Amino acid sequence: MAFAAMMSLTLLEDSPRPDTFELASLLATATYYSSTVLASVLATGMASSLATAQTGRTRWLGLGLLGLSAAATLTNPLFLGWEAGPLALVLALMARRRMLLWRRLIRIGALLTLGSALGFAGRIPFAPLIGKDSTAYLDVGSAPWLAVYYPKMLADRAWTLAGAISLTAVVALILVSGIAFRKFLAAQDANAALVSGMGWAAPVVVIVGAIALGAFGTRYLQPMFFAPVCTLVLAPRLIDHRTPFPRRLPHRTLQALLAATVVVCLSFSAVATVALSRSATVLNPDIRCVDEWISASHRTGAGHFWTIRGPKAYLAVPDQLIQIQDPFSAFPWLTDRTDYATQKVSFVLSDTAYPLPQLPPPANTAPHRTVSCGRYTITDFGAAILPIG
User: Fold this and answer.
1) d(CA 347, CA 294)
2) Where are the transmembrane segments (predicted)?
3) What does the domain layout of the chain look like in residue ranges?
4) Residue 36: CA atoms inside 13 Å, Cβ hemisphere, count?
5) How does pLDDT run across 314-368, given as a tens digit for each residue?
6) What is the CA radius of gyration of the chain?
7) In principle, which of 17, 67, 95, 199 could form an S-S bond with 228, CB 3.0–4.6 Å?
8) What band does 244 get if pLDDT is binned at 50, 70 and 90?
9) Order of strands across the sheet with 321-325?
10) 330, 388 contact by CB (below 8 A)
């Protein structure tokens, strides 16, 4: 049910914009921390088991949580804000209600802390390869502006029918998670309480933390979607055994409904797979135009990340396009560092969404021509005169 809900939310998203509240579909690309999402979900499950496991099993679960937190922090420190912070809050609330022994709380906290410390230590040797360190993403002074920006982005998303349905479902799941958390606290069900607690705590902690720390980018708020969806794994426990409705359904009827659901899901998956396979083999004509011109030129150019990522992916010699940012300087993010062995370029690629970047002084007097490829524009100077800062 949780998987189906995540896929349904994904199917409601179709915006080409990089910064929207269409966050469920980001799980499909490694560009937006999909490994961190999976690590957070897995850590919640492991912590839930560790909170109530028998003494003989805690050793292996503890080692697993230690290794997971170290690996997740090594690859992306967002794991601390997405998982460690909310998990600490939920565990503290559970311990306060005496449904979790304090020594279990301390053990889990120590494992997360030690694992995160090992992850940070592991990042030190890779420091020269990290484009931005963790502090580069923080700007406390922008908190007042973000308090306006994020609600505006939510309003933009809610303006469409698909967006309204998606956000309504997410808000409903967060509220259900809060109600379920109280229910499981009262029932002294520690496993379910921890999972449902993360369903409301993670979105709240991440939203408040992102605004307070000045973290610009809706992608940092992904726990809003995946954390409450995880509460759906508790659906059987949320249905009280005294509820008459499930008992009215005969066993064969339940089997038929389950079989029909499986058939529909498999059929939909097959159709979607065929459609995606066909679309993957068809190259966009604008990108084909750009790549043919670049290949024929045997020269190297530059452009913004969002402009060149498509043409660069299909280019026969990908390092003919170098990723830059304003002011015309190297932007080594999600690209090969060897690209920057070329220090000067002869043309600049722009598109309708991202106009021509700020060009270096030699471009002010040099003759040039423009080549149109649909939504792309190639500004060609004929020779490598534009230095990359």
Assistant:
1) 9
2) 21-43, 63-93, 105-126, 158-181, 193-214, 256-276
3) 2-238, 245-280, 285-387
4) 23
5) 999 999 999 999 889 999 888 888 999 999 999 999 999 888 888 999 998 899 9
6) 25
7) 199
8) very low
9) 329-330, 321-325, 301-304, 347-351, 376-380, 369-373
10) yes
- Give the pLDDT of residue 55: 64
The number of CA neighbours under 13 Å toward the Cβ of 300 is 19
HEC string for the chain: CHHHHHHHHHHCCCCCCCCCCCCHHHHHCHHHCHHHHHHHHHHHHHHHHHHHCCHHHHHHHHHHHHHHHHHHHHHCCHHHHHHHHHHHHHHHHHHHCCCCCHHHHHHHHHHHHHHHHHHHHHHHHHHHHCCCCHHHHCCHHHHHHHHHHHHHHHHHHHCCHHHHHHHHHHHHHHHHHHHHHHHHHHCCCHHHHHHHHHHHHHHHHHHHHHHHHCCCCHHHHCHHHHHHHHHHHHHHHHCCCCCHHHHHCCHHHHHHHHHHHHHHHHHHHHHHHHHHHHHHCCCCHHHHHHHHHHHHHCCCEEEEHHHHHHHHHHCCCHHHEEEEECCCEECCCCCCHHHHHCCEECEEEEECCCCCCCCCHHHHCCCCEEEEECCEEEEECCCCCEECC
Residue 112: C-alpha distances to residues 36, 107, 253 (Å): 15, 9, 45
Question: How many residues are there in the chain?
Answer: 389
Residue 273 above 60 pLDDT? yes
List, in order, residues 6 or more apart from 125 with CB less than 8 Å away. Answer: none
- Give the per-residue pLDDT at 246: 41
Instruction: State the average pLDDT for the chain.
Output: 86
CA 44 to CA 50: how far, in whole Å? 10
| Maximum C-alpha span of the chain | 82
